[in-house]
Amino acid sequence: MAKPRDEMLTIPEVIEEIGVPRATFYRWRQYKKGPKSIKLPNGAVRIRRSELSRWLQMLEESA
Fold first, then answer.
1. CA distances (Å), 12 to each of 4, 36, 62, in order?
2. How many Cβ atoms sit within 10 Å of the Cβ of residue 59?
3. Is 38 helix (H, G, I), strand (E, B) or coil?
């Protein structure tokens, strides 16, 4: 049985899902505090759904 694909989210999708301002998210990225991202050859940035979930769980555990 084939393994399901890990959904690739755009930054606007992530921002909408977690409910933070765009500037805040980009500041987190700048300081390496946001979820790990993938830069595609065309310059677009994507974040795996599994990575977003892992990052949120890590924040929850450290609260």
1. 23, 15, 25
2. 12
3. strand
In single-letter form, the type of residue at position 24 comes to T
Q: Tell me the pLDDT tens digit for each residue of 6-60.
A: 999 999 999 999 999 999 999 999 999 999 999 999 999 999 999 999 999 999 8
Residue with tokens 């949120």: 56
Helix 22-30 × helix 11-18 angle, to 10°: 110
pTM: 0.85
Asked if 9 contacts 48 with a C-beta cutoff of 8 angstroms, the reply is: yes
d(CA 8, CA 58): 20
